[in-house]
């Protein structure tokens, strides 16, 4: 059921960086971060503690092997995780500070959760009901925020819940998340994913599901585990466990209060149409005890969609295009795009197009505008330059120039030398990886 293996496990040994890992990473990544001990590792990623050399702040850096995610067809999950995490701003969601890349690695620079995984705390014994309530309130606050922004996590479990230095909850790992534009014409999601013990029965039915309702189910399983110290649906035989999940067969331990028992029954309802919603959870008496609501106005600009003009690129787009050791986007061949080069500019799309048109006129080339770009061609179309412009931030755009025929020489000899002033040159040193 899981689309990819865990990218963060519990710490190994004394947490020191093994020799192989030390060879992979320079001690001073991009001269910005001082890398420390290994926190965990998985099939295609490793997570390190690091210190921001500018501020002294502790951060977590997830190093992802590009080759392994490409072989495993996992690029879509990494891309989605970047798109989602770069926009989520909530006190109970791990913050993504920035994304960096070298030729072989992608680096997520994230908020450091000093308290580690919630899973490790549960392994030592069940929680009191008040502590269960505290963490469940924080979890629901984060989930409600995600849902209000059209994000469905789809893999909520204690291993994906971290604790900060104040022992407050932080949701992480959005690699299996879905967004509203993945919903099909029937109004449902259809991708099978999640972790077996936490997966909702409607996912097992393979008939489509509501992303919000499956997150509620997983939250219910987490609450049960916090209270009981073990899973509500568990069996050494996977199919037997799935049958229990599908029927909603579970029993609360004897120490469970009547109110919590009733609440869990409403959450772990195998029928998604009658299962309690996040809105109903927020007004439940058991949940509401001592609850302090976190106000989070909906960001109207927070939309996951393709823009017809000047599409906003995310960091993964740059990583995908980049052939080199940084994301500065300076002139250079763009990986497997043999006949294409890219650069980042702080000029407006109109200004950039105007410059290309002026040069084309000097060279006697034909010009045709194409959306946020322009096509330049020579006599009888013997050579062509295609210019595409995509919005990166409010201030920056990415310009891609594709060449065919003798357009390659024309670009190199005539256009490129006269457009260097358009290139944005940020303060980002190259890495040696």
From TrEMBL:
Q: What is this protein called?
A: non-specific serine/threonine protein kinase
Domain NAF spans what residues?
A: 308-332
Q: What is the lineage of its organism?
A: Eukaryota, Viridiplantae, Streptophyta, Embryophyta, Tracheophyta
Identify which cofactors the protein needs according to its UniProt entry: Mn(2+)
Query: Which family does the similarity line name?
Result: Belongs to the protein kinase superfamily. CAMK Ser/Thr protein kinase family. SNF1 subfamily.
InterPro entries this protein is in?
A: Kinase-like_dom_sf, NAF/FISL_domain, NAF_dom, Prot_kinase_dom, Protein_kinase_ATP_BS, Ser/Thr_kinase_AS
Keyword check for Cytoplasm: no
EC numbers on record: 2.7.11.1
Q: Which reaction does it catalyse?
A: L-seryl-[protein] + ATP = O-phospho-L-seryl-[protein] + ADP + H(+); L-threonyl-[protein] + ATP = O-phospho-L-threonyl-[protein] + ADP + H(+)
Name its GO BP terms in alphabetical order: signal transduction
Q: Which UniProt keywords apply?
A: ATP-binding, Kinase, Manganese, Nucleotide-binding, Serine/threonine-protein kinase, Transferase
Q: Where does ATP bind?
A: 62
Start and end of every Protein kinase domain? Answer: 33-287
**Which Pfam family, any one, appears in the UniProt record?**
NAF
The first-level EC class reads transferase
Its Gene Ontology molecular function terms?
Answer: ATP binding; protein serine kinase activity; protein serine/threonine kinase activity
Q: Which organism is it from?
A: Erythranthe guttata (Yellow monkey flower)
């Amino acid at each position: 059921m899981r689309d990819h293996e865990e990218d963060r496990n519990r710490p190994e040994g004394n947490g020191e960086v093994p020799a192989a890992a030390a060879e992979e990473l320079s001690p001073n990544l991009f001269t910005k971060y001082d890398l420390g001990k290994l926190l965990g590792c998985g099939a295609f990623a490793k997570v390190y503690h690091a210190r921001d050399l500018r501020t002294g702040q502790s951060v977590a850096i997830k190093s992802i092997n590009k080759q392994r995610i490409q072989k495993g067809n996992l690029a879509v999950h990494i891309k989605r995780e970047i798109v989602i995490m770069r926009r989520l701003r909530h006190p109970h969601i791990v913050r993504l500070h920035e994304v960096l890349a070298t030729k072989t690695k992608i680096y997520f620079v994230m908020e450091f959760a000093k308290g580690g995984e919630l899973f490790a705390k549960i392994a030592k014994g069940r929680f009191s009901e008040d502590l269960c309530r505290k963490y469940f309130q924080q979890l629901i606050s984060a989930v409600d925020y995600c849902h209000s922004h059209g994000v469905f996590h789809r893999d909520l479990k204690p291993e994906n819940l971290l604790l900060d230095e104040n022992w407050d909850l932080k949701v992480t790992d959005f690699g299996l998340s879905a967004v509203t534009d993945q919903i099909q014409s029937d109004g449902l999601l259809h991708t099978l994913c999640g972790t077996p013990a936490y997966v909702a029965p409607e996912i097992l039915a393979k008939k489509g599901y509501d992303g919000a309702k499956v997150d509620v189910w997983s939250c219910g399983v987490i609450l049960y585990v916090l209270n009981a110290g073990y899973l509500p649906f568990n069996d050494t035989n996977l199919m037997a466990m799935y049958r229990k999940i599908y029927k909603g067969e579970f029993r609360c331990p004897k120490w469970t209060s009547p109110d919590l028992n009733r609440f869990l029954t409403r959450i772990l309802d195998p029928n998604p149409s009658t299962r309690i919603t996040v809105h109903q959870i927020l007004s439940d008496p058991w949940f509401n005890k001592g609850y302090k609501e976190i106000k989070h106005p909906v960001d109207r600009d927070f939309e996951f969609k393709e823009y017809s003009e000047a599409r906003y690129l995310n960091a993964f787009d740059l990583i995908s295009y980049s052939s080199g050791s940084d994301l500065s986007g300076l002139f250079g061949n763009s990986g497997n795009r043999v006949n294409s080069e890219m650069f980042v500019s702080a000029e407006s799309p109109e200004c950039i197009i105007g410059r290309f048109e002026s040069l084309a006129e000097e060279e006697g080339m034909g010009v045709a505008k194409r959306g946020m770009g322009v096509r330049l061609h020579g006599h009888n179309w013997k050579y062509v330059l295609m210019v595409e412009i995509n919005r990166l931030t409010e201030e920056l755009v990415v310009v891609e120039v594709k060449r065919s025929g003798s357009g390659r020489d024309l670009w190199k000899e005539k256009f490129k030398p006269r457009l260097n002033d358009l290139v944005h040159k940020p303060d980002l040193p190259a890495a040696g990886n």
